[in-house]
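Input structure tokens:
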């Protein structure tokens, strides 16, 4: 892929002066249309060889377009606040919303390229990292993000000439950091890594455009022209309703609904024993989250389950053991306008705790394969691909030393009805019952099947589901606390 960018493309001054104003006008118009139609977002990734003009190209784009709706973000070594969270956190946090344009310098390619250059990744680990990048970009594209990726390239000879010119220019010398000379020295080896990265991660939904960076005018016109085409394509995309996607739902695995139906809901815990166990496990959890090794870990607790199964009560017994400065409880409801303007995992990535922190999710990212599936809020294609996307999300968390515990709380249909009626008679609990709860109850079997599919497809060795028999609240709360303690102890000992 790199040979085509080493042939010496040039554009003369007269042609540049003739085409640049028209191109700038077209970019501004496309940017306005993108914003008005709330399409996209368009995410531009700019990477490439040291000294090839990456930053100058990004600066030119912002100069030609409305700076209010295009934001350039440089990614290098993680800042202190970024270093205490999973690597992907900073990219998700910076993700542009629909109608906007983001320019990420290097983006998620920074880590694999830097680690490979330092020798921290062998060829196999490097390829594994790039495969994860492919999956990530495929998910973004499926969520409506228009990805435009530019590799600004220089041949070794052109790079040597460029660095010599910068070194002898008093106004440009400040740009040199030392990394340029090291990259020039390692150029033959690095070139093979670049080529492998470009070929591995150039996918149909997010191809790489390799641009010759030797001539400034050629580089700027070419990048702007390709970006204009991508913006126009984003504006032309139609927003389709879930039913119009034309993808048949996947058949349920025969009999897998027994995963939840065969839970022994008769299990009970006497009140006296519950009070003793509650004190014991809360004290145990408090010690674990204050352990010096926990400062290098984080904890994510995900609670799902049947309506009225007691998620809130279980969460309160967990937080009763925690330092209020250490945790955040995140209740998840229908996404607001800002959240709908981003990929569905965006709002969850933003709440991932730093090391030493804890986040409890009351409802979770599994809404995509539960509520959105059952209520036809997304297409079968969307919720089917979400299983793999969620597994990847949770794997990224565990790789970054986050302990993830997932709980499904199950009660019988009869017990749910009893609790619904009891809530309706209790003044301070009436707010918990809504028309949605009664409507969901009428679709009990649909939710039951969706839950069974979810458990089967996303209970992994790294992040298994814990199924909680919640007919008896005392039993359920202790099982949740015991599971968290056991998972934390295993993680701190490893």
């Amino acid at each position: 892929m790199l040979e085509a960018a080493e042939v010496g493309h040039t554009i003369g001054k007269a042609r540049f002066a003739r085409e640049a104003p028209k191109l700038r006008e077209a970019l501004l118009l496309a940017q306005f249309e993108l914003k008005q139609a709330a399409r996209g977002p368009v995410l531009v990734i700019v990477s490439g060889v040291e000294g090839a003009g990456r930053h100058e190209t990004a600066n030119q784009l912002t100069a030609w377009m409305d700076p209010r709706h295009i934001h350039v973000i440089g990614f290098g070594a993680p800042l202190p606040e970024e270093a205490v969270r999973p690597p992907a956190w900073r990219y998700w946090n910076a993700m542009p919303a629909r109608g906007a344009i983001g320019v990420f310098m290097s983006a998620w390619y920074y880590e694999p390229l830097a680690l490979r250059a330092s020798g921290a990744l062998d060829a196999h680990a490097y390829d594994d990292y790039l495969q994860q990048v492919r999956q990530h970009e495929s998910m973004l594209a499926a969520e409506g993000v228009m990805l435009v990726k530019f590799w600004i390239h220089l041949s070794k000879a052109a790079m040597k000439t460029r660095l010599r010119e910068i070194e002898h220019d008093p106004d440009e010398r400040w740009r040199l950091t030392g990394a340029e000379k090291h990259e020039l020295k390692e150029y033959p080896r690095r070139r093979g890594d670049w080529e492998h990265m470009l070929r591995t991660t150039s996918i149909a939904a997010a191809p790489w455009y390799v641009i010759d960076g030797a001539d400034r005018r050629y580089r700027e016109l070419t990048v702007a022209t390709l970006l204009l085409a991508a913006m126009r394509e984003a504006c032309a995309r139609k927003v389709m309703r879930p039913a119009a996607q034309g993808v048949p739902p996947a058949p349920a695995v025969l009999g897998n609904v027994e995963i939840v139906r065969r839970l022994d809901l008769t299990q009970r815990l006497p009140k006296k024993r519950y009070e003793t166990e509650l004190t014991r496990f809360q004290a145990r959890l408090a010690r674990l989250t204050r352990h010096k090794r926990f400062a290098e870990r984080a904890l994510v607790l995900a609670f799902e389950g049947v309506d009225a199964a007691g998620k809130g009560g279980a969460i309160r017994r967990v937080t009763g053991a925690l330092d209020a400065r250490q945790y955040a409880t995140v209740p998840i409801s229908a996404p607001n306008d800002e959240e709908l303007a981003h990929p569905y995992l965006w709002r969850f990535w933003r709440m991932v705790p730093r090391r030493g922190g804890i986040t409890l999710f009351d409802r979770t990212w599994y809404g995509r394969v539960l509520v959105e599936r059952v209520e036809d809020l997304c297409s079968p294609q969307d919720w089917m691909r979400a299983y793999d996307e969620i597994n990847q999300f949770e794997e990224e968390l565990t790789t970054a030393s986050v302990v993830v515990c997932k709980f499904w709380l199950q009660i019988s249909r009869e017990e749910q009805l009893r609790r619904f009626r009891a809530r309706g008679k209790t003044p301070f609990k009436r707010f918990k019952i809504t028309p949605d709860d009664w409507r969901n109850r009428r679709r009990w079997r649909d939710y039951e099947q969706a839950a069974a599919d979810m458990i089967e497809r996303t209970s992994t060795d790294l992040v298994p589901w814990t199924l909680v028999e919640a007919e008896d609240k005392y039993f359920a709360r202790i099982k949740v606390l015991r599971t968290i303690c056991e998972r934390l102890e295993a993680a701190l000992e490893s």
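Residues 240-247 have pLDDT under 50 and may be disordered. The first strand starts at residue 42 and ends at 48.
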